[in-house]
Amino acid sequence: MGKQFDRAAEDLANVVGLEHLNVRVPDQRLATLFYITGLGFTRDPYLMTGVGNMWVNIGRSQLHLPVGKPQVLRGRVGLVVPDLEYLAKSLKMVRADLKKTKFAFRSGKGYIDVTCPWGNKIRCHQPNAKFGTTVLGMAYVLFNVPPGAAKGIARFYREILDTTAILKTFEKAPAAHVAAGHHQQLIFQESQGRLAKYDGHHLQLYVNNFSQPHAKLRDHGLISEESNQYQYRFRDIVDPDSGQVLYILEHEIRSMTHPLYARQLVNRNPTQTNNAFAPGYDDRPWAAAHMG
Questions:
Q1: Superfamily of domain 14-255
Q2: Is the entire prediction scored with pTM above 0.90?
């Protein structure tokens, strides 16, 4: 018999993709300097090209940045980027233009922590085996939750959304780890600090079984929006037995029949410049064929 493989490692749960995170920003110019020039991502060239919203492509996922009162995630976004050395240089290039904002960055072992102009925290990781073959993408979103909430949150995702969710320590604190796609997670980490009031930011997930979670959410009185045939929303994460609200986070749930599912996203290579142009190197792949 040949080599034995861990076949379970390739199983997907009901949630098959973390497609976007949505936070409002008050200024598209500063958002462009930060997300496009500084972080090296790509503004979607086809959709939301006006001055009222901006979709930013990061591998197979996006950040949606509608203009309005700034929203700040209670936690951080974990991204994988191909080149931390280049990232540090590009962040230094925008530092002067962002000096009157909350923008900041610092390097750690295998990552760079970045703060956006309005206070959102982003950790940019170098590619490694933990993220599979991903070299550019949204690997996780971390949420700070009240003490004692993680166990119930894990049960909610298992029993209501029918996805894999386990309780284990993350950075020395209890946390619910929720499967949100191939090498993608939602992490709900218990925090002793006082949580800021929820300000309306949301995330979007694609699910395989679309109707069963909807029925369970409806039975619990949790559906907040019947968007269309392919989409619905809910806000409250509750204890499945008691109905106690454990955390508030708007979820935009889409079916795999949604017209935007698996839409190919443009990812530019930010190291390509007009003064050092090399034909054939305009695009940046989101995954590598092999990783050591």
A1: 2,3-Dihydroxybiphenyl 1,2-Dioxygenase, domain 1 (3.10.180.10)
A2: yes
